[in-house]
Design goal:
Blueprint lengths: L7 H44 L5 E5 L4 E4 L1 H6 L4 H4 L12 H14 L3 E8 L5 E12 L5 E10 L1 H24 L2 E5 L6 E5 L1 H5 L3 H4 L4 H6 L3 H17 L2 E9 L5 E9 L11 E7 L1 H22 L6 E3 L5 E4 L1 H7 L3
Antiparallel strand pairs: 1-2, 1-5, 3-4, 4-5, 6-7, 6-10, 8-9, 9-10, 11-12
Length: 334
């Protein structure tokens, strides 16, 4: 045999090498076992975290095959994880499968995270809103091999947003019907929200006027009225009382109208006022009528004072409301 021709020295050397290899294997075995145990513990922690996250989490292959899903995700889809893994998205969400596959392919191509909000009709028939993040799952070489989807149920948030939007629409329509510009002013932030008959009063569209803050509003007050109005408002804010003012207001076309503004600074926490709601009304017609009445009364008074005879104005059974100078001279009145 060939081995019989080996020298004693060679045999001893091979024996030592064999012993060394066995020793290395004995040394590596515990380390390998520890590594396997650490990997197993890490996987268990990951599974526990994913399972108890309280939100749907699932992994898909790039061709839409479900590789993993936690219990809450499976419950939303009307099954158990073991029943769904290995199926394709087209089987349980046919209406949105095409869009979902487009998103999966997109992440698979560039590895970039994507976020979407969708209203999903679940197999139970319930319609729920979900915000879903799509993440790339890479192998050791950095190649995208799967896509992980992490979803949050945002149905309540969407319902609240819809309710708020509807409430604001009702408020806006109601405010517009009153013919008043309505505002909400937050003294803490200085922010103003405008609604109501914005265009009828200011000449600006609803969208344009949302850009107006308190400084821009103040610039629209006639220079001769501005100091008075701002002082009244500052005083009302300081003492947290009602605020009223009549002043001339410049419209978008540069013309001035008379407006009446009413608001209230309601006391809030830590001696700070809560956001207040106020109104601005166009009172130009009323002011013109008052001016015309005053002019008419002035002309009548001037005529009667210069009338050579006695003249007075009174209602039946009541004292005179007005008498001219000739009547006063006759009776010696001053």
């Amino acid at each position: 045999m060939k081995d019989e021709k080996k020298s004693k020295t060679q045999l001893i050397e091979e024996l030592n090498q064999l012993r060394s290899q066995i020793s290395e294997m004995d040394t590596a075995a515990p380390e390998r076992k520890q590594a396997e145990e650490a990997l197993r513990e890490s996987e268990e922690k990951y599974r526990s975290l994913v399972e108890n996250a309280g939100i749907p989490i699932m992994n898909y292959s790039l061709d839409g095959c479900l590789l993993f899903i936690n219990s809450i995700g499976a419950k939303n889809l009307g099954g158990k994880p073991e029943d769904l893994i290995g199926t394709f998205i087209t089987e349980y969400l046919p209406d949105m499968a095409s869009e979902a596959m487009s998103r999966i392919r997109g992440v698979g191509e560039d590895g970039v995270k994507r976020e979407f909000e969708d209203c999903v009709e679940l197999p139970s028939g319930d319609k729920c809103w979900f915000s879903t993040n799509f993440y790339a799952v890479n192998d050791a070489n950095g190649t995208v091999v799967a896509v992980q989807m992490v979803s949050r149920d945002i149905t309540e948030r969407k319902q609240a947003e819809d309710a708020l939007r509807e409430s604001e629409m009702r408020f806006r329509i109601t405010a517009e019907e009153t013919g008043q510009l309505v505002y909400s002013f937050d003294p803490k932030t200085g922010k103003v929200k405008w609604a109501g008959a914005i265009e009828a009063v200011t000449g600006y569209t609803h969208e344009e006027y949302q850009l107006f803050d308190t400084d821009a509003w103040a610039e629209q007050i006639h220079p001769d009225d501005r100091e008075m109005v701002l002082k009244n408002m500052e005083n009302a804010m300081e003492h947290q009382t009602n605020f009223e003012a009549e002043y001339r207001f410049r419209r978008k076309d540069g013309s001035y109208i008379f407006v009446e503004e009413r608001g209230a600074f309601v006391p809030g926490g830590e001696n700070a006022p809560y956001p207040t709601v106020g109104t601005i009304s166009d009172i130009t017609d009323r002011k013109q009528a008052e001016k015309a009445l005053h002019a008419s009364e002035t002309r009548l008074r001037s005529f009667l004072d210069n009338f050579p005879g006695v003249a007075f104005i009174s209602y039946p059974g009541k004292c005179a409301l007005y008498s001219n100078k000739a009547l006063a001279d006759v009776y010696g009145l001053t």
